[in-house]
Amino acid sequence: MSDFQTGSASARLDRLNQVITSHIADGLIPGAAMLIARRGKIVHQQALGRQAPNDAAPMRLDSIFRIYSMTKPIVSVAVMMLVEEGWLLLSHPVSRYLPELANLQVGLPLSGPEGQPALGLAPAQREMTVQDLLRHTAGLTYGIFGSSLVKSCYSAAGVGDPDTTNDKLIEKLGILPLAYQPGTTWEYSRATDVLGALLERLCGKPLDAVLAERIFTPLGMRDTGFWVPIEQQHRLAEGFVIDPVTQQAAHLLNVRERPQFLSGGGGLVSTLHDYWRFADMLLRGGELDGVRILSRKLVALMTNDHLASLPQAKSGASYLPGPGYGFGLGFAVRTAAGESAIPGSVGDYHWSGLAGTYFWNDPQQQLTAIWMVQAQEQREYYRQLFRNLVYAWLPD
């Protein structure tokens, strides 16, 4: 037992387990796994419930989860490694490396015949940069998360379809309008998928090989990748097909075979311990167990707010980082002690995944917390609940 697990601190960790166990017993989630580390050491880890709704197998500490957008910080670190090695500059236009994305236009809502909405086009005032991709100000969007004429264009073009490739993705984006002028508005988007394509283009290798060579193998992330080998599929966590709260169907990625589309924005699977090694490397300033992935100053650059000088950046319809948070190069970054509805410290940074996974680092407290679940419809609730319970435990 850690020194932290004594007295009231131990009781508060028990409360964390009890709360999650009660939610499992009530049929809200099949199971979950969680890890808390402080000052570089695991102080609490727990696997609760079942690994899948229709399977008696218990959740495991090494269960494998679809982490969706928690892929984004990993791909962002790989891009920053190329920056550090002199392959590219953050200020460079993306078209320098992906010429298909030159001379893009921006979609403008207009009034068409009989007052029907129509899509107009205007030239981009400047090109998107590598920095724009990393901080989601490139003008790109997703074809989901709300509706607009540009999003409809994305859907019609099949952007992000499972049978696409990174090269095909760039071809499609090269003929579609942007949703915003580059460098003006934060919009959750295909930007990190574009970064994945950029990594493939510059390194001359598929994205899975790039990430394995640069991050997974050096950090010992043995169970992180774009699919689960057949001999390990007994460890794959699953969620309810129909969410018990919203009654909405959940559609999770098929990760039982190598996908055609290696999505840099949301394609990875991972485990508690694998992702902790990645997060701990960041918290330690880019180095873990004598292996340096990224320099201390570039980690600091990534984990500081990059939206402060863009007054309209947070004005989009869905600013996911929320009050009290800006956005760095791959993470939401806390900029204020108040404003947010969740506890934390100025400078903490986090991101999450569509199926419910979540992590954050709090440098002030030397704290890492990781939550793994496959509960797509309940993701926002459990992020807040887990964070509240972790900070309630924090002993000093």
Keyword list:
alpha+beta; two-stranded antiparallel sheet; 2 domains; Beta-lactamase; 8-stranded antiparallel β-sheet; disordered N terminus; globular; 396 residues
Number of strands: 14
Which sequence of SSEs, written as H and E, runs from N to C? HEEEEHEEHHHHHEHEEHEEEEEH
Arrangement of strands in the largest sheet: 3-2-1-14-13-12-11-10
Strand-pairing-aware structural class: alpha+beta
| Poorly predicted residue ranges | 1-6
Radius of gyration: 21 Å
Given the C-alpha coordinates, what overall shape results?
globular
Strand content: 15-25%
CATH superfamily of the largest domain: DD-peptidase/beta-lactamase superfamily
Architecture overview:
The chain is an alpha+beta fold and about 400 residues long. Helix content is about 30%, strand content about 20%. It folds into two domains: about 5-70 and about 220-395, DD-peptidase/beta-lactamase superfamily (Beta-lactamase, 3-Layer(aba) Sandwich), CATH 3.40.710.10; about 75-205, 3-Layer(aba) Sandwich (Beta-lactamase). It has ten helices and 14 strands.
Give a brief outline of the structure.
The protein is 29% helix and 18% strand. It has 396 residues and is of the alpha+beta class. The longest helix is centred in the first third of the chain and has 19 residues.
